Amino acid sequence: MNYDQDKRIITTERLCLRLFEVSDAKDVQVLCNNYQIYKSTLYLPYPYVLEDALVWMENHKRNFEEERSYELAITDKGDGTLYGAISLSNHSTFKHGELAYWIGEEYWGKGYGTEAAQAMIDFGFRVKKLHKIFARFFSSNPASGRIMEKVGMTQEGILKEHVIKEGRYEDLVHYGIVYSKKRLRAEKA
Fold first, then answer.
1. Can you give the pTM of this predicted structure?
2. What is the pLDDT of residues 16-51, one digit of tens each?
3. Using CA atoms, how far apart are residues 75 and 84, in angstroms rounded to an integer?
4. H or E element: which one contains 140?
């Protein structure tokens, strides 16, 4: 993970994580107007219209500048294709943040979610000096849990029937990772 503070860009081997631009709104709308994405996310509406994308992106830059959250586009490092989104909240009082992400269905299974999640965790620990990063997913979406496991998170608990989605109660599975001296030594090795 490389972070360019001036441009607010995180790069990995294949990806560029950057602030959303108004010109991304149509691509966001196309990717998010997908029932498969909707059913596995907590807050995305369906159908997802262009105005939803514009309203969602409206405060990203200010949130980043004010250190509240870092909501970034997951794009191809070479051609800029938009694959999805990733965010990390910053609860500075507690030195922790929540990781959340979605990947457009046509890009599933290519490792983009895992690569972006690892980069965002590294950013949270190394650049923002968070102590803990946590995430949650519907138990009906185990692929999201596999991403969390691949980046070193461990399951911390399950909140049974914690939210309602389409008239059905869903369990929320919580994962977390703590930044430790042991992890720091492993990174330096």
1. 0.93
2. 999 999 999 999 999 999 999 999 999 999 999 999
3. 7
4. none
